[in-house]
Design brief:
heterodimer; A: alpha/beta; Rossmann fold; 2 domains; six-stranded mixed β-sheet; four-stranded antiparallel β-sheet; 38% helix; 21% strand; globular; B: alpha/beta; 10 helices
């Protein structure tokens, strides 16, 4: 097992009248290099789950694994873990606190005790990785950047410590369409070319679905569905009952299929839909 | 209210510079001439940093124009004595409902604005219950807002605005933080208010699928109004949308690809069901 959980249960404020069981015996595993998606209605436990994967939260019961070993409570080990499992929160740029883009990205490497000349290389590599300029931009104030650039800087600040697992909570919230497609292009590259394991929580499947290998579906703290993307997205009725949906393009394919057109419905990209529809130019059986 | 014109909101030769940013390459907004008609549903699109939120703040008297004028219900927003009246006439819903809910129960939250008007308690309660019934929130009146789902929270925020009997509702990415069911709930609620109560809506969104039901779509780019028209015209113009870093609805984008492949699809196709219908009614090719 590369990364995963076994019967992970999390209770917020245990032993008080406000006790809230946010995760109930969640068991799953991901292999190295997978692209995974966690979906579920608001309050289903997605954010709680991902905070366990880099040791920010501790299980009430059950275990969290990384490289086959249960995550313990040893501080040095947890620090090492957080370097290897990078976590980007929702709206990460709201947590910026440095005067320059450079300092913002250098914060983690400096904290990890790297020499300044190595820190500089790490910052530049991270900026380069997310496709941002490494000459002028590092000197600018983070608040002078556009929303899309700010988001990329936040990603770079996590990528600077070269994580092997990259976890993101609703990474495209508030971004415009070009910012969204840029960000998913980056995640695809990090996953396909650099071999990063990527795990995303999102309510917006349009960009994410086509990249995904594995989907985990949470409801009320329980893992109610897990498996290959194609299989999970074929549970259309169940997803709707959970208040979830499918990518818009997949819905169009279902629409065609319901009208009697012989088309596949396991299609998650415009290009895929285009090819499938081209196969039966203009034939409709009904 | 003293509004003899048919316009809810009028912007004339509007220019806005953020203080200290007069020297930047372009003002946050410039040359905006726009009128929102009684009961109109207006969708406002544009890339990050194009001035959408700034325009909403000018419509709500949170900002006043650097040059030109904004009139809301016939009142100039520069008239500081009438700011409260402007905001009552034209209520605002923000992206994150957590930033907008202030009270300990849903009932108190909806009543907040009315209490500030110093109305008698019995009258407040009557109005709150009427609004809650309209939005299907009766069962939740005694709940603390933080225990609600995202969609419910956003509907409570809408109820609070609605209790003030506005003639116009401004919404700045109201679904960005919501799950698919919550998004659906909020959009349906607002469309119903627009239809049944003749309340004008200005809806900022990054999701073209949310703009297809509008009466009119406006696109901002670099602080200027670059395009406006009916959704069928604007949202089907894929090359224009791409040139601005935007997207069309999935149906419009797929239709554009299929036309290139020789499918004889009608122009101005933006709804998924239209695309399905058009594809099914094409004559089989020999």
């Amino acid at each position: 097992m590369f990364i995963g959980t076994e019967k992970l249960t999390h209770i917020y404020m245990p032993g008080t009248p406000f006790a809230n069981q946010a995760l109930k015996e969640v068991t799953f595993e991901l292999s190295r290099g997978e692209f995974a998606l966690v979906i579920g209605p608001s309050g289903s436990g997605k954010s709680t789950l991902i905070q366990h994967l880099n040791g920010l939260l501790r299980p009430s019961s059950g275990k969290v694994f990384f490289e086959g070993r249960a995550i313990g409570s040893d501080k040095a080990e947890l620090l090492a873990l957080r370097k290897r499992v990078g976590l980007v929160f929702q709206m990460p740029e709201e947590q910026f606190f440095s005067e320059t883009v450079y300092d913002e990205i250098a914060f983690a490497p400096r904290n990890l005790g790297f020499e300044e000349n190595i820190v500089q290389t790490m910052v530049e590599e991270a900026l380069d990785e997310v496709g941002l300029d490494t000459t002028v931009l590092p000197k600018r104030h983070p608040f002078q950047l556009s929303s899309g650039q700010k988001r990329l800087v936040a990603l770079a600040s996590v990528l600077s410590s070269k994580p092997e697992v990259f976890i993101l909570d609703e990474p495209t919230a508030g971004l415009d369409p070009s910012g969204r497609s840029n960000l998913y292009g980056l995640l695809k590259r990090l996953n396909r070319e650099n071999g990063l394991t990527v795990l995303i929580c999102t309510h917006h499947l349009d960009e994410a679905a086509a990249l995904t290998d594995t989907v985990l579906v949470l409801q009320g703290g329980r893992l109610v569905l897990k498996g290959p993307a194609e299989k999970i997205f074929s549970h259309r009725e169940q997803l709707y009952q959970l208040g979830l949906g499918l990518p818009a393009v997949t819905e169009i394919m279902y629409g065609l299929s319901e009208q009697g057109m012989k088309v596949r419905t396991n299609i998650y990209s415009l290009e895929g839909a285009r090819q499938e529809i081209n196969k039966l130019k203009g034939r409709c059986e009904k | 209210m003293v509004n003899r014109s048919e316009f809810m909101i009028e912007a004339k030769d509007l220019v806005y510079n953020y203080p200290g940013e007069e020297e930047t390459s372009f003002p946050a907004l410039s040359g905006i001439n726009l009128a929102v008609r009684r009961g109109e549903y207006l969708a406002l699109l544009g890339p990050n940093g194009s001035g959408k939120t700034t325009l909403m703040k000018l419509f709500n008297a949170l900002l006043v124009p650097s040059e030109g004028e904004v009139r809301v219900g016939g009142i100039s927003t520069a008239d500081e004595d009438k700011t409260a009246e402007v905001r009552r006439y034209c209520g605002m819903i923000f992206q994150n409902p957590d930033n907008q809910l202030v009270a300990t129960t849903v009932e108190e939250d909806i009543a907040f604005g009315l209490e500030n008007l110093a109305l008698p308690p019995a009258e407040i309660q009557k109005k709150v219950i009427a609004v809650a019934r309209m939005l299907g929130l009766e069962q939740l009146l005694q709940q603390p807002p933080h225990m609600l789902s995202g969609g419910e929270k956003q509907r409570v925020a809408i109820a609070g605005v609605l209790a003030m009997q506005p003639r116009c509702i401004l919404m700045d990415e109201p679904t960005a933080m919501l799950d698919p069911a919550g998004r659906h709930d909020v959009i349906e609620t607002v469309r119903q208010l627009n239809r049944d109560q003749d309340i004008a809506v200005v809806h900022v969104t990054h999701f073209p699928e949310e703009a297809v039901f509008a009466d009119r779509v406006i696109i901002l780019n670099q602080g200027r109004l670059v395009m406006q028209g009916r959704p069928q015209n604007v949202l089907s113009d894929i090359p224009l949308l791409y040139s601005l870093g935007l997207q069309g609805p999935a149906a419009a984008e797929l239709a554009a690809l299929l036309r290139k492949d020789g499918f004889n699809l009608p122009p101005q196709l933006i709804h998924s069901r239209e695309l399905v219908h058009s594809l099914c009614s094409l004559e089989p090719k020999s």
